[in-house]
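<instruction>
Derive structure tokens from the sequence
<entry> Chain with its tokenised backbone below:
===
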Amino acid sequence: MDFRHILAFTVAAGAFLPGQSSAQEEPTQPGPNQRFKLGQSDGCFRYIGDAVEFVGRFKAGSYVGVSMITIGQDGLPTPAADEDRTPATDLPAWTSASPHFWFGPTTSSRDYSITFSPRAAWGSAAIVTICGRQSPPAT
């Protein structure tokens, strides 16, 4: 290999490496998001689908209840005891006898994001219910 071949190889390799590096650093695509608004009659929002993040507005001092039931490969709801995913948000957990996971109270009136973990299950269809209330749920 002469000098010209070495130079051409080096330039080609240098041009290839930055593209490869930037492809590895590219963030993963976010999953489907769903904005929601609580119903006026019962203070809840219900959803069936594959969204992985839910964003909605809560008033300061609100308590947020979330339940999720994964829909299995057979099209049937997963039994509650077998549910792998749990809701997560940036609010403290609130212990309750309810089948919902409760969080709160909210610290300010603003949009809050609710996701589910583990992330490996994102994109699987589920039945999601999000409720809000101004008083603490029964413990």
Remarks:
- Residues 9 and 15 are 10 Å apart (CA to CA).
